[in-house]
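Deviation from plan, reported transparently: Double cubane cluster complex.
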Amino acid sequence: MSQDYTKMWEKLGLNLEAHDALLSVLGKAYQDIYLAQKNRPQGMGYFDFVMSEVHGLRIKELLDEQAAGRKIIGAYCVFVPEEIALAAEATLVGLCSGADFAADEVEKLLPRNTCALIKSSFGFKLGKVCPYLECADMIVGENTCDGKKKSYETLNTLVKNLYVMDLPQKKSDEGKALLKSEYYRFKEAVEKLTGAAVTAESLRKSIETVNSKRKAIHRLARLRSASPAPISGLDALLANQVYFYDNPARFTDSVNKICDELEKRVENKVGVFPENTPRILLSGCPMAVPNWKLPWIIETSGAVIVGEESCVGERGTRNLTDDSGTTVDEMMEAIVERYFKVDCAIFTPNPDRLSHIAEMFETYKADGVIHYGLQFCQPYLMEAIPVEKALEAKNIPTLRIDTDYSMEDAGQLKTRVEAFVELLK
Ligand code: BJ8
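Because the crystal trials were delayed, the predicted structure below was used instead.
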């Protein structure tokens, strides 16, 4: 880190000892997983810097924004529309939930058989190690899966500023009407928080900002269809993870810079792995920072990941928001339309997700699909079975992996992934 942030963390009420321990585990994991990779694009230097300052400089920036009158909103789900937050002069950051922490304390509040992502969000709060959570003026939960929905009732006793958004479970007219009314309710809540009204001008600008971020990430995704793959799946995942908490304009510039570099790589047939390396499409639960276990296992087992069908990936960023509206209501309508297309497994039925997986398999010229489900995640684990069947019916080799954040099963997973990669060869 570029400077000593101890005072800042102390002021935020972090448990300094536990926080130091977390940062040192994170730093070591980053070194072993990310910095040990070969042939990385130079542009990844920016993301290495962001990661090294993830609890430092970025938090300082957010606190500076707060001091200047902006509000910070933390969110756990891609259904929370960044366009609305930005238009009402708030900054939206993702609350990551990608590592186990304070497990004993968490299990006093949540059943053991809760998914690692939900447990992690509680662990970061109970362990007082997340500066994003501690600096947020509003924390947005959402009624998606049963685990999240019920856990927010308990989270509400731990934080003072939880706002819960209701979400539809069906892609029906009634479902869309619910999403629309919830987005208007969210708009009002953010306006009340910041004291700034969403105007046609501010909403038009925020749609443009968020769309630019998505366009840059789409450009990165398209470049990964080249063979040899110009960037590793681990590095592309990192860009998708940083998407959730970096300054939007700076993020867009940095991704576009990497894309300039990758375009040259593609032209010169320069890749991170040899040309005939088996190509994997990863599909399933979101992978929040610092959940890099499975991608790391895959890319150290002779394969390269060429796409993520995930909320930290294409499911979260796939569609742009139509920017042709001229009034707040027209643009709100466009926002509802855009988010209603997100094909999370909490929807029933959810046929679009199946089509998207098959479509991504073709687009990124994958050789096989690895479906990643977090243990105890009913929506994705249940959906994994029809996904596997449908892909196999199309002769697409598929491997189903259910795991959590611990490293206990790493050896066993590696054996299974290596066998799958052999089969693809
Ligand atoms: S839109 S995927 S970010 S809800 S892993 S907590 S589903 S039991 S994260 Fe998600 Fe929004 Fe959907 Fe995307 Fe529950 Fe499963 Fe845990 Fe999950």
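Strands lie at 71-75, 90-94, 138-143, 162-166, 279-284, 304-309, 368-374, 398-403. We consider this an acceptable substitute for the interim report.
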